Target: O-methyltransferase
Amino acid sequence: MPPAGPPTGDAPAARLFELITAHSVSAALHAVAQLRLADAFDGETSYTDLAEKTGSVPDVLLRLLRFLVAQGVVAESAPGRFALTDMGAYLRTDRVESLFAVALLHAGPHHQRRWAALADKVRPATGEQSAPQPAPAASPGAGGGNPFNMPPEIAAVFQQAMTFFTRSTAQAIVDGYDFAGVRAVFDVGGGHGTLLATLVEALPDISGVVFDLPEVAERAAQQFAAQGVGERLTAVGGDFFQHVPAGGDLYLLKNVLHDWDDEQATQILARCRQAMTPGHRLLIAESVMPDTLSGSLASRLAAMGDLNMLLNGGRERTLPEYSKLLSEAGFRQTRLVPIVPAWIGVESQLIEAMAI
Model:
């Protein structure tokens, strides 16, 4: 039998036990975020000082810190004295590419309860498999609205986490895609406009429109004004299942299509095509599933993302699956553009298509 998962020198049973109990690591990282423990470090710091800064019980915090040492999040330089590792530093809130909000969201109990329903998704009760999935209130990947009817405090963390991912992807798109000849970019399902604002700040000849639900578009307009890009960016409210505004020469869909089944995704693409002039471009920024998976980091992230979308009623797709959707909606796929979001260092791909 071939080895499974990432390379490891551990015995298979020991590795499996770690996977079974991996929730303990998530819970510990969620506690770190709740306590804002990473912010309490000032270089090498004693556990008693950390306890005082976070209002924690010293002996109990010491046990948590030593667990984090075993995970590589902190290092114990001397008995009772700890420092953040390069990995642990990503949990600080003052870091531009901080994963603090991501830890609060993905390692929190609300998210874990969703994953507890996985078996029911794989083997639903009689009659449930064909039942329609509840539609998100907005495009979850775009960072707008409260897509899964979360409690307000969780929804706020969700917005922070999605903003982190969007900013990282936006910079990678700026670095990796050739915008020569593009004057008007329309971001469909663009949420609060973080992606579009990043693009126009880096590309002074470009203007744009973010299109999302009316209440989301209103917040995007406020953000554009606050960032000083309101003269170049417009926020338009509407429903991308009904129509998409015309006038762009490049349309963007970032983490929108994976929220929906094939029929709905094709409908969104068709509405984009109706708004576009033949020859104009569509750029899809989504996770593209490999045709076959391995134990690599890229494969692990893709597979995890697909199961996460399964729980939401959506799916990640392979390149042939995206090509089929595009063809049915009136597009021709033209090329793949590699990008590397800096926070993770794993190459992903933009799918470029042309309206025909």
Notes: The radius of gyration is 22 Å.
